[in-house]
């Protein structure tokens, strides 16, 4: 889901959530819903068009782009007690106006507006993007808006989103202030302030790994799905403990009655069509098989050699 806070037009990410003629929801909300809401197959605006997000990234089919170099992160190291909100579709952290990015093959500076996450109770069903058909436990989006110029026209790269996969791993102490805040925003349209200060860098993988990423042009992943997003999907996942991941599904609710747990807030994968997914100059494609699988033949040969 992409939701901006500031100066974009009303559709999608300018507001806590998009203005639409009908209430939209995720597939999991349709059955228990006592009201009419539109599931992903019926989302309005540009949602049924041909350049939509998320997509499945087939790493072997990505194309190397030497222009996709390192990012320059401004304000990502500043610690804040961020405001955290349950907006009825996700948990969203407002980032103010002090954080921005340049580089990374982007045409200009983009200013961060908010971050939010997608998740599931299942550890292989919570990301929106997929790598070689495989989902991750969660996906985090940091949403940036292109800085205004003298004459600013709507373009296919008006929004830049940095997307990070989240996988099960060790306990992540840097994420804990956000996880702890969930208990105070169980119901939709509630917010709280983190009890401890953290920076955006605290939430991300090591900065050195951030030079490895994929790039394509797509859309917002919530109505009205405007096709104006330049996507950066990073290769290196964030690690959270299983209990930290499950806290999002257990503590947050889609409804005020707290009868429908907020989980599986994930848009289905969309067709890539004729679009090309590029990869940054440094990494090369992700391994399509686990490393032990790739090493097995070589180890077998070595074993045979020793036995002779």
TrEMBL record:
Recorded topology in the membrane: Lipid-anchor; GPI-anchor
UniProt cross-references to InterPro entries, sorted A to Z: CA4/CA15, CA_dom, CA_dom_sf, Carbonic_anhydrase_a-class
Keywords recorded for this protein, A-Z: Cell membrane, Disulfide bond, Glycoprotein, GPI-anchor, Lipoprotein, Lyase, Membrane, Metal-binding, Signal, Zinc
Domain Alpha-carbonic anhydrase per the UniProt entry, residue ranges: 22-281
Primary location group: membrane
E.C. no: 4.2.1.1
Any single GO CC term annotated in Swiss-Prot or TrEMBL for this entry: plasma membrane
Keyword field contains Oxidoreductase: no
Localization annotation: Cell membrane
GO molecular function, one term: carbonate dehydratase activity
Catalysed reaction equations from the record: hydrogencarbonate + H(+) = CO2 + H2O
Claim: Metal-binding is one of the keywords in the record: yes
Cofactor(s) required, per the database record: Zn(2+)
Described purpose of this protein according to its UniProt entry: Catalyzes the reversible hydration of carbon dioxide into bicarbonate and protons and thus is essential to maintaining intracellular and extracellular pH. May stimulate the sodium/bicarbonate transporter activity of SLC4A4 that acts in pH homeostasis. It is essential for acid overload removal from the retina and retina epithelium, and acid release in the choriocapillaris in the choroid.
Subunit-structure text: Interacts with SLC4A4.
Stated family: Belongs to the alpha-carbonic anhydrase family.
Name recorded for this polypeptide: Carbonic anhydrase 4
Organism: Muntiacus reevesi
């Amino acid at each position: 889901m992409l939701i901006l806070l500031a100066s974009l037009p009303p559709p999608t990410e300018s507001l806590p959530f998009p203005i639409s003629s009908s209430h939209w929801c995720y597939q999991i909300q349709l059955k228990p819903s006592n009201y009419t809401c539109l599931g992903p197959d019926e989302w309005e605006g540009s949602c049924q068009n041909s350049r939509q997000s998320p997509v499945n990234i087939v790493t072997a089919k990505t194309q190397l782009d030497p222009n996709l170099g390192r990012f320059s992160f401004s304000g990502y190291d500043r610690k804040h007690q961020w405001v955290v909100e349950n907006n009825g579709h996700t948990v969203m952290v407002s980032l103010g106006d002090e954080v921005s990015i340049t580089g990374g093959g982007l045409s200009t500076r983009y200013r961060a507006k908010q971050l939010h996450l997608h998740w599931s109770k299942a550890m292989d069903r919570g990301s929106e993007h997929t790598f070689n058909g495989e989902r991750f436990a969660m996906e985090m989006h940091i949403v940036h808006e292109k800085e205004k110029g003298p004459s600013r026209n709507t373009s296919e790269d008006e929004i830049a989103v940095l997307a990070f996969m989240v996988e099960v791993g060790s306990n992540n102490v840097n994420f804990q202030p956000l996880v702890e805040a969930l208990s105070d925003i169980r119901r939709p349209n509630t917010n709280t302030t983190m009890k401890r200060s953290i920076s955006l860098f605290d939430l991300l993988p090591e900065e050195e790994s951030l030079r490895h990423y994929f790039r394509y042009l797509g859309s917002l992943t919530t109505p009205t799905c405007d096709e104006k997003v330049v996507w950066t999907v990073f290769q290196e996942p964030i690690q959270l403990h299983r209990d930290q991941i499950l806290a999002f599904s257990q503590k947050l609710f889609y409804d005020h009655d707290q009868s429908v747990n907020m989980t599986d807030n994930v848009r289905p994968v969309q067709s890539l069509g004729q679009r090309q997914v590029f990869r940054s100059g440094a990494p090369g494609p992700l391994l399509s098989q686990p490393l032990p699988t790739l090493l097995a033949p070589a180890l077998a040969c070595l074993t045979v050699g020793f036995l002779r």
